[in-house]
Amino acid sequence: MTSESPSSPPAADGETPAAPPAPGGPSAFSITLRPLGFGDPLRWLALGWRDFVRAPLIGLFYGACFMVMGWALLEVYEQAPAYVLALSAGFLLMGPFLCLGLYQTSLRLERGEKPDFGESLLAWDRKTGTLAIFGFVLLVLEMLWGRASLVVFAVSFDGMPDFKGSVTALLNPENLNFIIAYLAVGGVFAGLIFAVSVVSMPMILHRQTDAITAGLTSMRLVLTQPGVMIFWGALITVLVVLALLPWFAGLLVVGPVVGHASWHAYRAAVADDPAAAP
User: Which of 72, 85, 146, 209 is deepest in the core (most CB within 10 A)?
Assistant: First the structure.
């Protein structure tokens, strides 16, 4: 005597019963990615500025956090310039992880709802496990980046220079081999972190998914549309570098605008899950 699952309707003669949906949503390779154009990153920035203007107090709070964390980074690592140079760039490339509150604000604005500051602070609360796993991956990449930077300094100089000396070394044409090696190492890790995280954190916040699926989807986007995503990464880099010049003060505005824009980049690039509830 056989029994049928009450949750699955009986199959017609000659038909194969439909498989139950996979837990946690679709796989990374079944998620639809929309085609993007080179004008899209500029549009994301415009939308990010619009969200910042619509919720300025929330944006300024997170911008101030970026600015203060930059000051703290310089203070803590004043005696370790190699870590400062690597971790400063990595800290800014980890923006998608630090900007969950901005993503939550953009989500509310997208739905025509009023953003709530307290809710933005607790945006991580619903996806603690998934975000912890993804954050650990980024942390490991940051530690490897810092260690690789120390190795490059160690083999290029006799001892570690101070902060001023390290900047001079980077700008001195006589240290061409060091400059090439340092930028190559930094470029590899920066590119990897960007590829893994460019749409991962908004995706984790917005839909039912896991850290691996989100990371692979982000990498798929970068690998299948490299030109647009490289342009997007270059725009972020230029804006962030300009924001760093006046003692990180530019991050007060650039940080939240880029955070909001990253949400719109995710919404433009990753199609909605048709099986998800509205």
Answer: 209
